[in-house]
Write a structure and sequence with these properties.
The structure is a single chain. The chain is an alpha+beta fold. 35% of the residues lie in helices and 30% in strands. It is built from five helices and six strands; from the N terminus they run αααββββββαα. The chain has a four-stranded antiparallel β-sheet with strand order 5-4-1-6. A hairpin with a 5-residue loop joins strand 2 and strand 3. The longest helix is centred in the C-terminal third of the chain and has 32 residues.
């Protein structure tokens, strides 16, 4: 359940969004918050279904950007219809090994001037100029990362149980001033995180490969008490909470780990190689 502070933050964001949407709609359409207009009880069920379908569509759209294709969707729906569970699995590996050692001279930009005067028989004056040159030794390390996002049927025993949605391999050179390895020599796996998406796939309707959502609240069963208190919405909330936790876990691999090593960030630095 959303706490009071979270509800206020959500309503503030929604008000801003409504102001933007109002500029895109004609004068006859004026969207409002549900609790500010007259509505019937059936409208609450319709709103619960609509919001859930929007959430489902949002997740599927994000997955399509990560490589989920219509063919993948058809296969996943077949697995679910056969009574198999379907999960998303993120797996990454990291290695770090010494590449080479380099030395170079660094010249101090400051100059040191010294004046000497000799008084033996005749006066002579000399000015000496010197600079400090430091030899710097750097140790270069090859840091390599491999990651894969795939859909898994059951526990994923066979190759046929895996559908690779996206994957990548990249490397980055790390420079250090000592021979101490800056990262673990090998992490296999560095991260292994899974989330069950059986419920998500089971909400798809339409033709095979379609991303059309079909979530409905069954109002005819005794367990359906209100638009919020029913098994269908409860399962939806459980899925969204579980999926959010998994997404944050995967994002942390990049934003709090890899981007710090490569010098990239969400602020606009080049992270395309990852």
């Amino acid at each position: 359940m959303m706490d009071e502070a979270g509800a206020i933050e959500f309503e503030n964001k929604l008000e801003v969004a409504l102001a933007v949407v109002a500029k895109c709609l004609d004068n006859l359409r004026n969207p409002k918050l549900a609790n500010t207009i007259h509505h019937g009880y059936d409208d609450l069920f319709a709103l619960a279904e609509w919001c859930t379908n929007v959430g489902i569509a949002s997740q599927l759209n994000a997955l399509s950007q990560l490589g989920l294709s219509p063919d993948h969707v058809s296969t996943l729906r077949e697995w679910v219809q056969q009574g198999q569970s379907v999960s998303l699995r993120f797996r990454s590996e990291e290695t770090c090994e010494h590449s080479c050692t380099m030395s170079h001279d660094v010249e101090d930009p400051r100059e040191y001037r010294e004046e000497r005067v000799s008084t033996a028989r005749r006066i002579s004056r000399a000015i000496f100029t010197s600079k400090v040159v430091t030899t710097v030794t750097e140790y270069l390390w090859d840091f390599k990362v491999k990651w894969q996002l795939c859909a898994v049927r059951g526990v994923g025993v066979d190759d046929g149980d895996l559908l690779v949605l996206s994957s990548n391999e990249c490397e980055h050179t790390i420079r250090t001033s000592s021979m101490s390895c800056p990262r673990p020599e090998a992490l296999v796996p560095a991260k292994l995180s899974e989330v069950d998406i059986t419920w998500l796939i089971s909400q798809l309707g339409g033709e095979a490969g379609s991303l059309e959502t079909s979530f409905k609240v069954n109002r005819d069963v005794p367990t359906c008490k209100t638009p919020r208190r029913n098994l269908d919405v409860e399962k939806a909330i459980e899925h969204f909470l579980r999926y959010r936790s998994w997404s944050q876990d995967v994002c942390s691999v990049f934003f709090t780990n890899l981007f710090r090593v490569t010098g990239g960030s969400s602020a606009g630095k080049d992270t395309a190689s990852l």
